[in-house]
Specification:
It is built from 15 helices and 18 strands. Strand 16 and strand 17 form a beta hairpin. It is 31% helix and 24% strand. Among the domains are: 179 residues, 2-Layer Sandwich (Uridine Diphospho-n-acetylenolpyruvylglucosamine Reductase, domain 3), CATH 3.30.465; 100 residues, Alpha-Beta Plaits, CATH 3.30.70.2190.
Length: 410
């Protein structure tokens, strides 16, 4: 029967990992449990739950830097930042419900470990770009520290970037440090109605290149837009192309006017103000606008110019009895695709469609049996796979940390 360890501090984490390494006892690294369904299913492991490592350990609003223990709930960090009118600019989102996990249980360590970023990534960058440093324990049972509490930190190897997106397979994080930014004075979203996928994504590209500095860009086909709780999005019974603008009030007002003039001939336009705008982008970031079914869910990262063609190629190749729904974020660079009624998650069709233009396909939601049989993450070429294996060997030579989560080999 697997045992659950709940360390109270970083020293106890080191002791537990050192014991597990000596005994060659695999460990599942867990924070709030919201991301257990992400990645490949792991073999039976003892659990190292770091939720006891919680709390903001350093926060200097004037320096725009915050550090927190890795098990700190994301909501607690966001609450602390909001009191000082600041935020995590990469807009972390909660993948718990969409992967079958609990809601509102995301931790800052899990956000960094999985490099989870929301719609603002297209303008502000990913979690990786805002992580200034990490403290952790490698699979050798050795504590380490990378980075620091200043924005300009270039000394030594930037291990924090390596840890971001490693899904807990290289080390157990115990503390993370972020760069934070002020919350803008105003937020608005311009909506354009009735564009098809190719035209809508082209409009997003035009908006991105306009010099008007949008902070989020998404296209929602009609079947996706209809599930929004925002009336101006679901009510028109049509596709919606959304452009978010943030900043000082006069600037936001002027840029909204410019966008509506720029796209006025393409279709009817509307404008969402603060609360409704925030609601829409939360729905987009947390993938709430795709059907809540037992279908599989893919996350495709592609060149925006190929996005509409990729979805068309996939849907054309699917069996006639299947059902598919798509949503486009990051100006078309991120595709969320839900497919129902296919075998093996249609992984050969999906990856075949992105092969020509390039990109990555990650299977975000599927039954455990399927995630154990088909590649969850984009298969690497032999050279890169060998490099990944050497990095894993260096940090975790006995393969005890989240074994098999990213690859059957490690």
């Amino acid at each position: 029967m697997p045992e659950t360890f709940r360390p109270r501090d970083a020293d106890e984490v080191r002791e537990i990992v050192a014991w597990a390494a000596a005994e060659e006892c695999p460990l599942e690294i867990r924070g709030g449990g919201s991301k257990q369904g992400l990645g490949r299913p792991m073999a039976s492991c003892d659990v190292l739950e770091i939720s006891g490592l919680s709390g903001v350990t350093y926060y200097e609003p004037t320096e725009l830097v915050l550090a927190a223990a890795a098990g700190t709930p994301l909501a607690a960090v966001e609450s602390e930042l909001t009191q000082n009118h600041q935020r995590l600019a990469f807009e972390p989102v909660d993948y718990g419900p969409v992967t079958g996990g609990p809601a509102d249980r995301s931790t800052v360590g899990g956000i960094v470990a999985c490099n989870i970023s929301g719609p603002r990534r297209v303008q502000a960058g990913a979690a990786r770009d805002h992580c200034l440093g990490v403290n952790g324990v490698s699979g050798r049972g050795e504590a380490f520290k990378s980075g620091g509490r200043v924005v300009k930190n270039v000394t030594g190897y930037d291990l924090s970037k390596l840890m971001t997106g490693s899904y807990g397979t290289l080390a157990t994080l115990t503390e993370v440090t972020f760069k934070v930014l002020p919350i803008p004075e105003k937020t608005r979203t311009v909506l354009i109605y009735g564009l098809d996928q190719a035209t809508g994504i082209a409009a997003l590209g035009k908006a991105s290149a306009s010099g008007l500095e949008p902070t989020a860009l998404a296209h929602l086909p009609a079947s996706t837009a209809s599930r929004s709780t925002v009336d101006h999005v679901s009510g028109p019974d049509n596709s919606v192309t959304a452009i978010r603008i943030e900043g000082l009030a006069p600037s936001v007002k002027a840029r909204c006017t410019s966008f509506r003039e720029l796209f006025g001939s393409a279709g009817d336009t509307e404008e969402l103000h603060g609360h409704h705008s925030d609601t829409l982008w939360r729905e987009i970031g947390e993938v709430k606008l795709l059907p809540a079914t037992d279908g599989v869910l893919w996350r495709l990262s592609v060149p925006p110019t190929t996005a509409a063609g990729v979805v068309w190629e996939i849907t054309e190749a699917l069996p006639k009895a299947s059902d598919a729904h798509a949503m486009f974020d990051w100006a078309g660079g991120l595709i969320w695709l839900m497919i129902k009624g296919v075998e093996d998650a249609a992984h050969e069709i999906t990856r075949g469609a992105i092969a020509t233009g390039g990109g990555h396909a990650t299977l975000i939601r599927a039954p455990e049996e399927i995630r154990g049989r088909v590649p969850v993450f984009q298969p690497r070429d032999p050279g890169l796979a060998a490099l990944n294996a050497r990095v894993k060997k260096g940090f975790d030579p006995r393969g005890i940390l989240n074994p098999g989560r990213m690859s059957a080999d490690y």
